[in-house]
Write a structure and sequence with these properties.
Distance between the termini: 15 Å
Shape: globular
Structural class: alpha/beta
Largest sheet: 6 strands, parallel
Low-confidence stretches: none
Mean pLDDT: 97
Radius of gyration: 15 Å
């Protein structure tokens, strides 16, 4: 089965500059859960790779993060889909870990735990860090305009952008549109 990687905040659920701190604050973007279920039903193994520095900042606990992820999985399962794995980086940006995107540790964990290379797999994100991480591991990056995606799209237009071949990154309104494209490819 082919693998597909998704960022979480801004791709699957609405993002917040104040962080998604609890299950009550976690709200899926319209069509995102259905998109994940359709991709799963079509044979894709879905992995989620997300930076969650709110853990280290003390904004939420591991139990609260796990409640959000359990609800996400439940909603996808209710539509007869599944998520193969949820991978997160709890570190602050200045901690120098190897898992905080754009570093590649989360994708290496996906490879290790799911036993499959991420090379040539789709990685759908809303930030430049997502796209940089995808390129570093030879994934096929895709940008959604939800979350920080609008800002990222403007960054891609800049000649100073730190991303190989930014013009080759397909841009979609949201995860539902990205999934429709992927399923037709």
């Amino acid at each position: 089965m082919p693998l597909l990687i998704l960022d979480r905040d801004g791709v699957i659920n609405h993002d917040s500059d104040d962080y998604i701190r609890s299950l009550d604050e976690w709200r899926p973007i319209a069509g995102s859960i259905e998109a994940i279920a359709k991709l799963s039903q079509a044979g894709y193994r879905i992995a989620i790779a997300t930076n969650q520095s709110g853990l280290s900042r003390g904004y939420f606990t591991l139990d609260e993060l796990e409640q959000i992820h359990a609800r996400l999985c439940q909603l996808v399962e209710e539509l007869e889909g599944s998520i193969a794995g949820l991978f997160y980086c709890p570190h602050l940006p200045d901690e120098g870990c190897d898992c905080r995107k754009p570093a590649t540790g989360l994708l290496k964990a996906v490879e290790s735990e799911l036993g499959e290379s991420v090379a040539d797999t789709w990685f759908v994100g809303d930030s430049l860090k997502d796209l940089q991480c995808a390129r570093a591991m030879d994934c096929k990056p895709a940008l959604v305009l939800t979350g920080k995606g609008g800002k990222t799209h403007k960054q891609l237009q800049s000649p100073e952008v730190d991303l190989a071949n930014p013009g080759d990154v397909p841009v979609f309104d949201d995860l539902a549109a990205a999934a429709a494209h992927i399923l037709q490819a």
